[in-house]
Design a protein that fits this description.
globular, 7-stranded mixed sheet, single chain
């Protein structure tokens, strides 16, 4: 079955950086699109970034210029490099892939202090 395991979250000061990782199994990673969503307390889950199998990327306006999504097909891993973090980036970050349905990891907490 599809498994997505996120890591790399933590507590960081505003202006700092974190790199999230998501290791996948149970499907052919190299042909699937991948994405990162986030969910802040009391808010809906929202899309942060996506990457196609060929490496084309899209970003939500609120992360453009600060976050970079990338993938390593040899390692079945997708990354989210987060720079210039703001307190409003505080959320649980989820890795996802999709075909006829969406699959989710368990999430990793990112907390940005002011």
């Amino acid at each position: 079955q599809v498994q997505l395991v996120e890591s790399g979250g933590g507590l960081v000061q505003a202006g700092g950086s974190l790199r999230l990782s998501c290791t996948a199994s149970g499907f052919i990673f190299s042909i699937n699109p991948m994405g990162w969503y986030r969910q802040a307390p009391g808010k809906q889950r929202e899309l942060a970034a996506t990457i196609t199998r060929r490496g084309s990327t899209t970003y939500a306006d609120f992360v453009k210029g600060r976050f970079t999504i990338s993938r390593d097909n040899a390692k079945n891993t997708v990354y989210l490099q987060m720079n210039s973090l703001k307190p409003e980036d505080t959320a649980v970050y989820y890795c996802t892939t999709w075909d006829l349905t969406y699959y989710w990891g368990q999430g990793t907490q990112v907390t940005v202090s002011s």
